[in-house]
Design brief:
This protein is α/β, with parallel strands linked by helices and 446 residues long. The protein has a single domain, classed as Purple Acid Phosphatase, chain A, domain 2 (4-Layer Sandwich), CATH 3.60.21. The protein is built from nine helices and 20 strands. The chain has an eight-stranded mixed sheet. It is globular and about 80 Å long. It starts with a strand and ends in a 6-residue tail after the last strand.
């Protein structure tokens, strides 16, 4: 997968690049000291040392007792400034669930254009340093037509268009991950690779499964590593060909240990920030279940995860800070971000499935490694009868498409009530704080 760099300055993304630079620097020093042939430096090449800046010695009555005007300069202490913190903005969204009517809305004369459906939210995505979606369904393998519920299969164009509107990567562990078997898992990750997107939660090989999805965020002369892990409660009874193909955990037993283990492994491998996407629990219910809360609290108590990003309920759920977290000052938890793009609504489910949450956060990594997450949120909705256009609710107060102003107000109120008052609502797109972000390839799929 080619590295995806959304910033203007190039990133030395791999550690060996820094190693080569260090070798070159040491080689240059060696040549400067020993000469090209290793002998003494030729006289002509010698230069006088540059005098250090001095402070004039005091004289006369200004001189302290015991000194003279010829005592020489006083020593000047050298102060090394502390490294500046790395700050970046993050956006995450709800489920990308392209039912057949969604695919029909995106269909064009020569293919599909899902980017047109997401145009209303595009500024809120591409403005962030790191944007993560949740791809709930597999991409259609070769020879398989796109399909909807109950066995999903999305046109591969949807991955291209997710990249086009600014997403950097997605979580891919869900109850629909293996709807099209191994071929679907492979087709999905191949499409992500082809479009420069990172993926976390599914794998083509055991080696790939063992490689954490990471992003490198650079600000000034500092680079921090952001790890993304993704797990689901199950696969709707569909067989999984190998235990490493999809990240799974036992939600019925409220046992998130595989998630905790993956986060701990990421930290041992050098991750400064760990994000966990968790796909579980009860659908169409705004209040988190007891098991859902227990799962999130155990993850918070582990001290391994900086931000919990929830999926699967298909309706917006609360955003809260739970006790625990890596610093002991809590772990922000978005229990469920609802739907980002789907055909769900009152005709099949509940009204709240039309809505979603864009979770935004400013993440600060201090010089000592302490991480601070400052979250916010923005309400979204799908105009299901208006070509499945996705809108930011606060941008269409007077109505848009088939949505009246009163309907928009009603949907925004519903999202606001569901999310709660722990995190503020944002009415404007987030903006970039870092210099650049690179999605580091997991493997070549071999």
């Amino acid at each position: 997968m080619p590295p995806r760099n959304r910033r203007t300055r190039p990133l030395a993304a791999a550690a060996w690049v820094g190693g080569l630079a260090l070798v070159a620097l040491l080689a240059g020093i060696a040549l400067g000291v020993g000469g090209a042939r290793g002998g003494a430096e030729p006289p002509a090449a010698r230069t006088a040392p540059t005098p250090a800046a001095t402070v004039p010695a005091p004289s006369g009555d200004d001189a302290p007792a015991g000194t003279t005007a010829s005592s020489g300069p006083a020593p000047v202490a050298s102060v090394t400034p502390a490294p500046a913190p790395v700050r970046f903005t993050l956006v995450a969204a709800g489920d990308v669930l392209p039912h057949t009517p969604v695919n029909d809305s995106a269909r064009t004369a020569d293919g599909y254009d899902f980017a047109a459906l997401m145009a209303g939210v595009r500024p809120y995505i591409e403005g962030a340093d790191l944007a993560l979606c949740h791809m709930e369904v597999p991409v259609s393998p070769e020879g398989v037509e796109p399909s909807g519920y109950p066995l999903f299969s999305a046109p591969k164009a949807i991955v291209r268009d997710l990249a086009k509107v600014g997403w950097d990567g997605c979580s891919t562990a869900s109850n629909h991950s293996v709807d099209r078997g191994t071929a679907g898992v492979e087709a999905t990750l191949d499409a992500f690779d082809a479009n420069g997107l990172q993926a976390a939660g599914t794998a083509r090989t055991k080696k790939e499964a063992a490689t954490t999805a990471v992003y490198e965020v650079t600000s000034g002369d500092r680079t921090v590593t952001v790890a993304h892990v993704s797990f689901a409660y199950g696969t709707n009874g569909m067989p999984v060909s190998a235990p490493w193909q999809v990240g799974l955990f036992d939600a019925d037993a409220a046992d998130p240990q595989p998630i905790i283990d993956a986060a701990r492994k990421a930290r041992k491998q050098g991750a400064d920030v760990v994000l966990a996407s968790v796909h579980c629990c009860v659908e169409y219910q705004t209040a988190p279940t007891d098991a859902q809360r227990a799962i999130a609290q155990k993850i918070a108590d582990s001290g391994q995860v900086d931000l919990y990003i929830g999926h699967h309920a298909h309706v917006p759920q609360p955003i809260e800070r739970l006790d625990g977290g890596p610093s002991g000052h809590g772990m922000w938890t978005a229990f469920g971000l609802g739907n980002f793009l789907s055909n769900q609504g009152t005709q099949c489910c509940v009204a709240a499935t039309q809505n979603g949450v864009l979770l935004s956060a400013t993440v600060t990594v201090a010089a000592d490694g302490t991480v601070k997450v400052k979250p916010a949120w923005t309400g979204t909705t799908v105009d299901r009868l208006g070509g499945h256009a996705v809108h930011v609710l606060t941008d269409i107060g007077g109505g848009a498409g088939t949505l009246s102003g009163a309907e928009v107000d009603s949907r925004l109120a519903a999202v606001t009530d569901a999310v709660g008052a722990h995190a503020p609502m944002h009415r404007e797109p987030v903006t970039s704080l870092a210099d650049h972000v690179v999605a580091v390839p997991r493997t070549d799929g071999a």
